[in-house]
Amino acid sequence: MATKKRKRRETFGMIDKLPSGRYRARYLDDAGTRHAAPQTFDTMTDARAYLAGIQTDMSRGEWTSPVARAAAKKAASTTLAEYVETWLTLKSRRPRTLEEYRRLIRGPLAELAPLPLSAISVETVKQWWGAQLAGGKVTQASRAYSLLSTVLSEAVDDGRISVNPCRVKGAQTERTGKKVTPPTDEQFAAIVAATPQHLRALVYLAADAGLRWGEATELRRSDVVVEADRVLVTVARAVVKVRGEFIPGPTKTEAGVRSIYVYGDAAAAIARHVDADRFRFNPGALLFPASDGVSHLSQSTFHTPTWNNARTAAGRPDMPFHALRHYAGTRYAQAGATPRETMTRLGHTSLAVALRYQHATDRDAEIAARMAKRPAGTA
Question: What is the rounded CA–CA span in Å between residue 138 and residue 289?
Answer without folding.
Answer: 35
